[in-house]
Amino acid sequence: MPSGLVKQLDNQAKQELTSRSELTRKAIARYLNSQSNWDKIFAYGEKQAKKLGIKEKDIDRLVSEYRHGK
């Protein structure tokens, strides 16, 4: 890890009265949870698109139509 980032991590851990390891663990957990949520959102979108018969080539047109109220 770059030394500047380690320094920032140590400063933040000190402010939060916690350890570098605990702060890193929380950051990794938050990142993994965020990725999992995005995976669920994309899976839902794919399921809905399939259900509605929307193809990838249709997306730009549909977004444009929606934005212009058509």
Task: Describe what you observe in this structure.
It is a single chain. The protein has one domain. Helix content is 79%, strand content 0%. It is built from three helices and no strands. α1 (3-15) crosses α2. The longest helix has 33 residues, at 20-52.
State the end-to-end distance. Answer: 51 Å
Query: What's the SSE pattern?
Result: HHH
- The unreliable regions are none
Helicity, in percent?
over 70%
Tally of discrete structural domains: 1
Main pleated sheet: none
* Number of helical elements: 3
Radius of gyration (Å)? 21 Å
Count of DSSP strands: 0
Report strand %: under 5%
Q: From the helix content, strand content and strand pairing, which structural class follows?
A: mainly alpha
Overall mean pLDDT score? 94
Describe this protein with a few key phrases.
mainly alpha, 70 residues
Question: What is the structure about, briefly put?
Answer:
By secondary structure, the protein is an all-alpha fold. It has helices spanning 3-15, 20-52, 59-67. The chain has one domain (3-67).
Itemize the secondary structure elements and their pairings.
Blueprint: H1 3-15, H2 20-52, H3 59-67
